[in-house]
Amino acid sequence: MAENSKVKSFDVSKYRIATGTEKRKVFIEETGDEFEVTVKQLSWAKRNQMVSKCLQLGTNGQNSFDGDLYIRECLKQMIVDAPWGVTNETFLSTIDSRLGSALEKLVPNAFGEESPVAAPNDIKKG
Questions:
Q1: Is residue 57 assigned to a domain?
Q2: Number of structural domains, the chain?
Q3: Is the pTM value of this prediction over 0.90?
Q4: Residue ranges of the alpha helices (H) in 32-106?
Q5: 51-67, pLDDT tens digit by residue?
Q6: Is 75 exposed, middle or buried (0-12, 13-18, 19+ CB in 10 A)?
Q7: 77 domain residue, yes or no
Q8: 104 falls within a domain
Q9: More confident: 121 or 8
Q10: Mean of per-residue pLDDT scores for the chain
């Protein structure tokens, strides 16, 4: 087989996640509150780990997925700086649905695309 001189070499760097962090604005429509959090991207492997942790395979062939656990685990991994300090289980168990729903939009889809539910500049609860 003859080599084709026009074949590009594979550039894996464009498929790597950002190693740094980024600031994301979160807006709570009901109250008009807006704030920034600093987040890091989840790798494909880390996201799959969390999906596996939240997926229960039943012996009768029925599977269940704990979406609540998935969202909480992702938020704890992703948010590295926020106005409330550490994002942990204690914090997450004390917030109401307005803040929880706004933060949920930072979390990548569990199944399918790796991108977050909303675009980084369009994190709004609504």
A1: yes
A2: 1
A3: no
A4: 44-54, 67-78, 89-92, 97-104
A5: 999 998 888 888 899 99
A6: buried
A7: yes
A8: yes
A9: 8
A10: 85
